[in-house]
């Protein structure tokens, strides 16, 4: 039994102006945060069917805006072989947010702890959005698009997704609704021809992907893709042998105009060519060509006497769609896997780490904890919420430990703003037990001390020289804010400047004083130049003096790998990470369940500490990390 599926393709094309206007008006801050998080990473864009086009498009956006490698993959690509997601940003596209393949790919991204994950869905509530809500590293755009569900082919959802993600990457788009075309002429060119050869380049690539998908999925023809130069490496033989069966579709953008002209003028005149051309460059050109490609599919449907949006779908096809993709579960415990990922080379030899984690857990459980040394941004609060105060559940656990007499030290790269936030969050009676290590631990004061942190510029002559070197660079002062303190210089990007590139530039500027004791540490949003004064380890030493012999300090942070700003803090013997780890087997262990990071992981650690009479014990269950 065969059944019609979808809705009239013409009605979907008619809805495009409304979709374009809607997508241009949506708030995209959530997606912009993902772009900022993924800016220093390669990107893997994952999707199936019509969403493949949006993923191809997103990969181009990332390559262009962030200058990082980016690749489109299907869910099965990700599930079948190692994809290196633990060192990549991951973008997923799914209009419904419920197909099994994209859900399995999302699970893989979480299991591999991709540093930044985002998805665009066009349903107000959907399984992908619900799954992502449990993980702070995942951001899912969910909204009800005005055109509703697509027919058999991705149309309005595809255009909406492309507009949304292009805006998130900071590209301005013109009023594209004026570029809709209703050109149904020329459908006779396809009569008797069942092969479509699509030539493309640059920003036309995603449109080629879309034509291949639509033409094949609707069974209107078979399609082959080649960029203009790859076509010259042998694929032209198809035209020489099968010209009578083939129509060439040439996708032309401003960037490929010259090569398209040179290529097409060499074709025999007997070969029919449909030319889709845009005068718009960049992402706007892609979207313009996509709309033109939709019209071409409509014309091809007319030639075949069928509606591309409402094909007959066989029952076996429905069953194929509903098959469950493979889900590969790692047999390596999450804490061990993180250490293996941190090694300088790929390794599956986990013997040292298996021994290391057992020794660490034994020591941590046996320790009499008298104080905690905690990083702030990314550990006690999410990075994007760092000026919004602490979560209630984090405050409750900190207050519980303080009331039990366990001291808490906060090691932060910031200054007075952290003191203000903690004073608002904690009962004033608890303030004497809270120490703050401002400016990466170089300026220590009690929470109630309104005179801390100290004001003024660098006290160390070497930092004065460092500031002069940095302030003399016009590019740096134009793109970053320099704030000199007593023992550090904060370098905060003013825009979307990659911190790794910024750190390299700063180190190059500081080369004249190399070896004089200046170093840098990097956070997710800035970097700090420190002098010879000890950093966050100073707070740990100060806490040890306060609690005396017989009790220990448990350190918790998020950036344990150098040059992260917690690398020294998490080199302490009793140290836990809520995100990045070093490759040391003796310290800096991340025990949290797969995919759990930041304040969510911190909360698990705090809840595992049983405290009484000024002494805490770390009652961690290994089952929590599996």
UniProtKB/TrEMBL annotation:
Biological process terms in GO annotation: carbohydrate derivative metabolic process
GO molecular function: carbohydrate derivative binding
Gene3D superfamilies to which the protein is assigned, alphabetical: Glucose-6-phosphate isomerase like protein, domain 1, HAD superfamily/HAD-like
Domain of life where this protein originates: Bacteria
InterPro entries xrefs: HAD-like_sf, HAD_sf, SIS_dom_sf
Record-given protein name: SIS domain-containing protein
Species, as recorded: Archangium gephyra
């Amino acid at each position: 039994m065969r059944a019609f599926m979808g809705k009239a393709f013409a009605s979907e094309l008619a809805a495009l102006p409304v979709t374009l206007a809607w997508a241009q008006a949506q708030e995209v801050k959530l997606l912009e945060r993902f772009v900022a998080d993924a800016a220093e990473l390669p990107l893997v864009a994952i999707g199936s069917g019509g969403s493949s086009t949006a993923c191809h498009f997103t990969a181009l956006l990332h390559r262009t805006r962030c200058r990082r490698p980016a690749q489109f993959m299907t869910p099965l690509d990700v599930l079948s072989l190692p994809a290196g997601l633990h060192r990549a940003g991951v973008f997923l596209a799914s209009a419904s947010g419920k197909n099994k393949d994209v859900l399995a790919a999302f699970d893989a991204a979480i299991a591999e702890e991709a540093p930044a994950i985002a998805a665009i869905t066009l349903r107000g509530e959907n399984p992908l959005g619900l799954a992502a809500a449990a993980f702070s590293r995942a951001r899912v755009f969910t909204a009800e698009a005005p055109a509703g569900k697509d027919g058999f082919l991705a149309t309005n959802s595809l255009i909406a997704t492309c507009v949304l993600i292009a805006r998130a990457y900071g590209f301005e788009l013109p009023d594209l609704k004026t570029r809709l075309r209703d050109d149904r002429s020329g459908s006779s060119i396809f009569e008797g021809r069942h092969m479509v050869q699509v030539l493309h380049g640059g920003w036309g690539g995603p449109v080629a992907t879309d034509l291949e998908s639509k033409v094949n999925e609707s069974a209107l023809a078979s399609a082959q893709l080649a960029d203009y130069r790859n076509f010259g490496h042998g694929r032209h033989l198809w035209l020489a042998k099968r010209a009578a069966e083939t129509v060439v579709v040439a996708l032309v953008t401003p960037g490929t105009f010259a090569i398209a002209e040179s290529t097409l003028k060499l074709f025999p005149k007997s070969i029919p060519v449909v030319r889709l051309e845009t005068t718009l460059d960049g992402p706007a050109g892609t979207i313009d060509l996509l709309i033109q490609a939709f019209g071409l599919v409509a014309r091809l449907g007319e030639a075949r006497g069928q509606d591309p949006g409402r094909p007959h779908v066989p029952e076996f096809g429905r069953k194929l769609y509903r098959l469950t993709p493979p889900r590969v579960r790692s047999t390596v415990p999450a804490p061990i896997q993180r250490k293996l990922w941190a090694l300088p080379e790929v390794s599956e030899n986990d013997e040292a780490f298996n021994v290391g984690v057992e020794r660490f857990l034994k020591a941590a459980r046996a320790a009499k904890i008298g104080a905690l040394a905690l990083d702030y941004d990314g550990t006690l609060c999410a990075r994007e919420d760092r000026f919004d105060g602490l979560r209630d559940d984090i405050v409750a656990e900190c207050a519980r430990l303080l009331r039990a007499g366990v001291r808490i030290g906060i090691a932060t790269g910031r200054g007075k703003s952290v003191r203000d936030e903690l004073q608002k969050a904690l009962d004033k009676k608890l303030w004497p037990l809270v120490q703050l290590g401002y400016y990466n631990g170089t300026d220590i004061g009690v929470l109630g001390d309104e005179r801390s942190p100290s004001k003024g510029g660098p006290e160390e002559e070497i930092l004065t020289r460092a500031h002069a070197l940095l302030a003399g660079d016009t590019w740096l002062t134009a793109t970053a804010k320099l704030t000199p303190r007593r023992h550090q210089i904060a370098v905060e990007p003013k825009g979307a400047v990659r911190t790794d590139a910024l750190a390299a530039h700063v180190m190059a500027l500081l080369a004249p004083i190399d070896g004089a004791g200046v170093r840098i540490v990097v956070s997710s949003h800035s970097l700090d130049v420190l002098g010879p004064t000890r950093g966050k380890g100073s707070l740990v030493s100060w806490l040890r003096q306060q609690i005396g012999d017989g009790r220990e300090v448990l350190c918790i942070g998020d950036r344990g790998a150098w040059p992260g700003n917690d690398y020294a803090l998490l080199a302490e013997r009793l140290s836990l990470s809520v995100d990045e780890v070093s490759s040391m087997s003796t310290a800096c262990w991340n025990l949290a369940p797969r995919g759990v990071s930041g304040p969510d992981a911190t909360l698990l650690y705090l809840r595992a500490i049983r405290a009484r009479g000024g002494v805490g014990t770390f009652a961690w269950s290994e089952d929590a990390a599996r």
